[in-house]
Automatic annotation (TrEMBL):
Organism name: Arthrobacter sulfonylureivorans
Protein's name according to its UniProt entry: Low molecular weight phosphatase family protein
SUPFAM superfamilies: Phosphotyrosine protein phosphatases I
Domain Phosphotyrosine protein phosphatase I residue range list: 1-178
Superkingdom assignment: Bacteria
C-alpha cells in the first residue's frame, strides 16, 4: 500500500522523477495484494492490478537514495543486509517526524526547486538533513516508529495500519510539495 500511495502522490507532484519500489523482509513471494488494501487503493483512485509480493534482495539495495521500512525491526534487518544504508534508512513514521522538524527549523536549508536536478539533489541530501533531527524527535515509545502489520489480522488492525501509515506518507508528500514550491 505504501508503495502505491507514495508512488502515485509523488508522481502527481513531479511526474517521472521518483522511483518507488517495495519488497518484504519476509514476503510471501508472488502473493497478490490483500483485498482490503486493494479496496482502499480503489477508493483513493489508485490501481492495484499486477501487484505481487517480492522478497527484499541485496540487488534492491544497490543505490537507493532513501530506504523506508514499516517497523524498526524491518529497518534493522535492512541495515544488517546493507550496512552502507545505515544513514539512509528510516521507518516511514520516523522520517515523517524528522521532516516535520526540518520544516520547522529555519536554520536548516533544504534544497528547493522543481527542476529534475533540484529534486534529485534534495532527495540525495534528505537522509543527511533528516539525520540532523533524528535525536531531537525520538519517539517516547519505540512502537511509535512502527506501522502495524495487518496480515491475517482483523479489520481493526487494518484500520490501525491505515491510521499509522497515511499521515506519515502525507508528511513525505507535503515535504516534497513545500520544497518544490519554494524554489
Amino acid at each position: 500500500m505504501a508503495e502505491h500511495v507514495l508512488r502515485h502522490r509523488l508522481d502527481e507532484l513531479r511526474p517521472g522523477m521518483f522511483e518507488v519500489r517495495s519488497a518484504g523482509i519476509q514476503a510471501l513471494v508472488a502473493a497478490p495484494m490483500d483485498q482490503r488494501t486493494q479496496a482502499l487503493l480503489h477508493t483513493l483512485g489508485l490501481e492495484s492490478s499486477g501487484f505481487t509480493a517480492r522478497q527484499l534482495e541485496d540487488s534492491h539495495l544497490d543505490s537507493p537514495d532513501l530506504a523506508l521500512a514499516m517497523t524498526t525491526g524491518h529497518r534493522d534487518s535492512l541495515v544488517a543486509m546493507a550496512p552502507r544504508l545505515l544513514k539512509r534508512t528510516f521507518t516511514v513514521r520516523e522520517l515523517a517526524r524528522m521532516l516535520a522538524a526540518l520544516a520547522a527549523d529555519p536554520a536548516i536549508r533544504v534544497p528547493c526547486g522543481r527542476a529534475a536536478p533540484e529534486v534529485s539533489e534534495r532527495w540525495r541530501r534528505l537522509p543527511q538533513l533528516a539525520s540532523l533531527k533524528r535525536y531531537a524527535v525520538l519517539a517516547t515509545d519505540p512502537a511509535a516508529d512502527d506501522v502495524v502489520d495487518p496480515y491475517r489480522q482483523d479489520d481493526s488492525v487494518f484500520e490501525q495500519m491505515v491510521r499509522e501509515l497515511m499521515p506519515a506518507l502525507d508528511r513525505v508528500v507535503a515535504f516534497e510539495a513545500a520544497a518544490a514550491g519554494a524554489g
